[in-house]
Specification:
This protein is of the alpha+beta class and about 450 residues long. Helix content is about 35%, strand content about 25%.
């Protein structure tokens, strides 16, 4: 019988929790955007839609629970996608379909006098298909794997679309409501990469993710944390641990490489992180390993800093192989780095119309606008392409993200998130007979 080892996770670097909140004060709002957004919020049809969201929060919660009960690991989102498509069709959206990548899209047609805007939330979760998704409630919180990330956001999209239909709001530009695939882990933004390769008409993107760390506020994410991910393969001759003693081991080389990575020092500003998350290899306790591998994640919101840490990690990997070969007077250990993830870094200026519109949406409703720290989300891709993009909250509070036992969502002021998002996309797309798009406004 053969044996092997697999360690998950092995944390040797600094890796930020996904979507963690660190809100900062918003900059002054540009009058050219603030005033029109305040007027937009007071329009009867828009106010009706905003009221609809608050009045139907119980339905949004019910949809959150129903969506979360459908397993949707990355690369296995099909069943949830079919359910989400059926829900969009039931709302009366046009052109509802599932594309070649597995993304679900439905359109609320505009008058043709505004930009096309996409509102999206990812369908996939980090949890394997066999994960128990049973929901429990305690102290006003809903506990279940994926309930916050990202079932709530998907449910919020449905409520926003339904509110617009109920209030008979026709935007100036088309609004595409989307449930996309492949945001988590090794999905590598598969869904949005396909979308932006195929849909050149999209002029603005708003993604929804959970808000963490507090029970109030929905800060706007305008900074995109880029990441580079590698599977590092170590290969050697292998052999019996006694009879072939003296041959270099792939596992020993991997161990040296991990030690060298652990010694790397990174700046605090711009923030740079690295992490060895999975190691695999070996055949048996008495076999010199002929193969071993590890998964490495590196992140930064700064493109140059990300390139620097990537070079340092790859150099550390090669150093581990070289030292192992030298130790055993050999050249047999080879290293093969394979790029498995590339999330581009990006940034929207705080004075850009899309950021100002989102902040003004909160202010117009009497809420304190706030900016969030950098995160890695679907918005990374359009930001890197120069397309206006931000990430907002689907509402409520949450924590324990990516922890099957600890993930929770609570309905504290939960309607506020979707209300902010609704007003934001209306500011971006414009409303027929009420307000033109502010996407090209001069702050």
């Amino acid at each position: 019988m053969h044996s092997s080892f697999r360690l998950l996770p092995l944390l040797i670097g600094i890796s930020a929790a996904p979507h963690a909140i660190s809100a900062e004060a918003a900059p002054p709002l540009a009058p050219a955007i603030d005033a029109p957004m305040s007027q937009l919020a007071r329009q009867p049809s828009v106010k009706q839609a905003l009221d609809f969201i608050e009045q139907n929060e119980a339905k949004t919660v019910a949809n959150t629970k129903a969506i979360n009960a459908i397993p949707a690991p990355t690369f296995e989102e099909g069943k949830r996608a079919a359910d989400f498509a059926a829900r969009l069709k039931a709302l009366g959206l046009e052109q509802v379909h599932i594309d070649e990548a597995g993304n679900v899209m439905g359109t609320l047609k505009g008058s043709g006098n505004g930009p096309t805007v996409m509102l999206a939330a990812h369908l996939d979760t980090v949890y394997p298909m066999a994960t128990d998704l049973t929901l429990s409630e305690k102290d006003g919180r809903l506990y279940a794997p994926g309930i916050a990330d990202n079932a709530r956001s998907l449910a919020a999209i449905l409520t926003i679309a339904e509110a617009m239909k109920a209030a008979k709001i026709q935007p100036e530009g088309d609004i595409i409501f989307c449930g996309n695939v492949g945001e988590e882990g090794l999905g590598d933004l598969k869904g949005v990469k396909h979308i932006f390769a195929q849909h050149k008409e999209i002029r603005a993107f708003v993604g929804l993710e959970p808000t963490l760390g507090g029970d109030e506020g929905e800060p706007v994410t305008y900074l995109a944390t880029g990441s580079r991910r590698y599977k590092i393969n170590f290969k050697g001759p292998g052999g019996h641990s006694y009879e072939a003693f003296g041959l270099p081991s792939a596992i020993h080389a991997l161990g040296r490489a991990v030690a060298h990575i652990d010694e790397l020092r990174v700046p605090a500003d711009p923030k740079v992180t690295f992490n060895v998350g999975v190691i695999e290899g070996g055949q048996s306790v008495n076999t010199i390993s002929g193969a071993a591998s590890m998964l490495v994640d590196m992140r930064s919101e700064d493109k140059a800093a990300l390139q620097t840490i990537e070079k340092q990690v790859l150099a550390a990997v090669q150093q581990g192989a070289d030292e192992t070969n030298k130790r055993w007077n050999s050249t047999a250990i080879k290293v093969e780095p394979v790029l498995i993830g590339d999330r581009p870094a990006g940034k929207m200026a705080v004075t850009s119309p899309i950021v100002q519109i989102a902040l003004a949406a909160a202010s117009a409703q009497g809420r304190k606008p706030a900016l969030d720290s950098a995160h890695s989300t679907d918005a990374n891709l359009p930001m890197s392409m120069g397309i206006p993009a931000i990430t907002m909250s689907g509402g409520g509070a949450s924590s324990g993200i990516h922890s099957a036992k600890n993930e929770w969502w609570s309905p504290v002021n939960a309607h506020a998130g979707p209300q902010n998002v609704l007003l934001t996309i209306l500011g971006l797309a414009g409303v027929k007979g009420v307000q033109p798009s502010l996407l090209n406004a001069t702050p």
